[in-house]
Design a protein that fits this description.
Number of strands: 6
Shape: globular
Strand content: 5-15%
Distance between the termini: 65 Å
Helix content: 40-55%
Low-confidence stretches: none
Structural class: alpha/beta
Mean pLDDT: 94
Order of helices and strands: HHHHHEHEHEHEHHEHE
Radius of gyration: 21 Å
Strand order of the largest sheet: 3-2-1-4-5-6
Number of helices: 11
């Protein structure tokens, strides 16, 4: 083989490896998130607490506690896009990436946990119920709505007949085109949960984590809070008289 041909071949191999490194890194982290969400769901069924599980396995340096945050799944541009890109790359080359398919399916399913819990709470129907949604962006400190769990969650709430009032510190303008027209976007978080039958935390902004549960309960009509990011102090909320649900926390 001529040296020029060898250089071209090595360059192509390096480019493909670099592409694989990017896809593999993001897919690994996405899979880690889906894994801990699966463990949270199993914990609920067997009577374990996901916080204890995370502390236990996260203390193993081979695993580490990073990206072991149970919640409503990943969003944004990188993780969903790169998982799907790697799946497509594999299938184009006649390989079925079963673990990546599973990670993607778990992530899709996880964002519907709030609706599942609301239907349990209200005996199978949330028609006419006022639901407060805290957070719209896919993560705090951004207005990025790409693949944000809030989009699917709110559409399902509206489809089920609930009255949705939502707030996000900076993402409301970016979110508006993605949401049903009858969703009310308000200027303050207090307006969101005033007279609400239930509250769902979707994005763990610092100001939401600082909410006083006693004050929250005093302004609500109901007392049901779904902590979609396990960002609240579960004991403080329960002690305040709130019917609290955290992902994998209700052992």
């Amino acid at each position: 083989m001529k040296s020029s041909q060898l250089k071209i071949r090595l360059c192509l191999q390096t480019k493909k490896s670099a592409e694989m490194i990017k896809y593999a890194a993001n897919s690994f982290l996405a899979t880690k998130i889906s894994f801990i969400n699966e463990m949270a769901n199993i914990s609920e069924h067997v009577g374990a607490n996901i916080d204890d599980v995370v502390r236990g396995i996260g203390s193993d340096r081979r695993i580490s506690p990073h990206f072991l945050n149970a919640g409503l799944g990943y969003g944004g541009s990188c993780f969903p896009k790169d998982v799907k890109a790697l799946v497509n790359m594999a299938e184009t080359h006649d390989y079925e990436p079963q673990m990546l398919h599973a990670a993607d399916r778990i992530n899709e399913r996880q964002r519907f946990k709030p609706l599942e819990q609301l239907l349990k709470k209200f005996n199978g129907s949330i028609e006419g119920k006022q639901i407060a949604v805290l957070g719209l962006a896919f993560k705090p400190n951004t207005d990025d709505m790409r693949y944000a769990p809030s989009i699917d969650i709110i559409h399902e709430l509206v489809k089920a007949g609930s009255i949705v009032c939502a707030h996000d510190p900076i993402a409301q303008n970016a979110a508006k085109p993605f949401l049903p027209n009858n969703v009310t976007l308000v200027e303050t978080m207090e307006e969101t949960y005033a007279h609400a039958d239930a509250v769902i935390l979707i994005t763990e902004w610092a100001e939401y984590k600082a909410i006083n549960p006693t004050d929250l309960l005093a302004q609500m009509r109901g007392n049901f809070v779904i902590d979609g990011r396990n960002a609240f102090d579960a004991d403080a909320y329960k002690n305040a008289g709130i019917d609290y649900y955290g992902i994998g926390r209700n052992s």
